[in-house]
């Protein structure tokens, strides 16, 4: 059975925002955000326009695959000690990872957020620097203020809360964070593709004397070309999203 992923995510997101707005106090919240920011300007559409965005007219559909594919694997409890040591991280290994990450964050702070050496990988650590953490907390504060202000407006004007409109108001703020995450993901994709092509090239260089056929070489080159096309497409999509925003 196949269920639309977008619909499931939408229902989960609306439920999460609804829960946050119910437990929040209506009119006693305080905000440290600049007074020049106007959250009410975000919600400028009529109720019918908001509902048209929240509840699309497309009918929900459920489809069934004509055939099923099964993949067998052993249960976790059936692993031997050697297999468990290979598959799972030990506490010592986790401590080493945390220590290395903390040192990389210190290096990022000292180098103003840029480490140009290939030896260091800082992906995923941006939010742990002072600037990254401050920016993350600021985005969360703005999003919370938008939700609370929209809740106050609905209670004062209608006396009831429309959770769908609150969710859309939150999405107006979180879309900027989503765009930034897409840019970071695109950069990570390029780095991973470059490493993949470089590793394949080195492997082919070692195997070339004993394998005169160039069929596999051609396949690897085609994969690298496809990765470059995918990167160009992602760049085009990001430009279009930036233009719309």
Task: Write a structural description.
- With 245 residues, the protein is mainly alpha-helical.
- The chain has a domain of 41 residues.
- The protein has seven helices and no strands.
- Helix 1 packs across helix 6.
- The protein is extended.
- The N terminus is likely disordered.
The low-confidence parts are 1-43
Shape: extended
Strand content: under 5%
Radius of gyration: 25 Å
Tally of separate helices: 7
What's the story with the biggest beta sheet? none
Separation of termini?
36 Å
Summarize the model shown.
The protein has 7 helices and no strands.
What is the topology?
Blueprint: H1 5-23, H2 47-54, H3 81-87, H4 91-110, H5 130-157, H6 163-207, H7 215-244
Helix pairs in contact: 1-6, 5-6, 6-7
Name some characteristics of this structure.
245 residues, single chain, mainly alpha, 7 helices
């Amino acid at each position: 059975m196949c269920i639309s992923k977008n619909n499931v995510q939408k229902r989960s997101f609306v439920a999460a925002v609804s829960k946050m707005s119910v437990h929040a106090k209506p009119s006693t919240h305080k905000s440290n955000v600049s007074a020049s920011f106007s959250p009410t300007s975000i919600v400028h559409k009529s109720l019918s326009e908001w509902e048209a965005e929240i509840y699309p007219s497309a009918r929900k559909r459920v489809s069934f695959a004509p055939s099923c594919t099964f993949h067998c694997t052993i249960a976790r409890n059936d692993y031997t000690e050697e297999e468990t040591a290979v598959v799972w991280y030990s506490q010592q290994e986790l401590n080493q990872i945390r220590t290395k990450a903390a040192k990389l964050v210190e290096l990022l702070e000292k180098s103003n957020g840029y480490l140009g050496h290939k030896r260091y990988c800082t992906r995923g650590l941006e939010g742990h620097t002072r600037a990254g953490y401050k920016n993350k907390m600021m985005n969360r504060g703005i999003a919370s203020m938008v939700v609370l202000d929209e809740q106050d407006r609905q209670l004062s004007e209608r006396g009831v809360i429309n959770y769908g409109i609150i969710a859309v108001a939150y999405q107006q703020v979180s879309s900027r964070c989503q765009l930034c995450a897409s840019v970071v993901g695109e950069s990570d994709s390029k780095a991973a593709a470059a490493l993949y092509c470089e590793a394949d090239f080195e492997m082919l260089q070692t195997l070339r004397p004993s394998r005169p056929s160039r069929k596999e070489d051609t396949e690897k080159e085609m994969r690298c070309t496809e990765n470059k096309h995918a990167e160009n497409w992602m760049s085009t999509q990001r430009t279009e999203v930036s233009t719309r925003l």
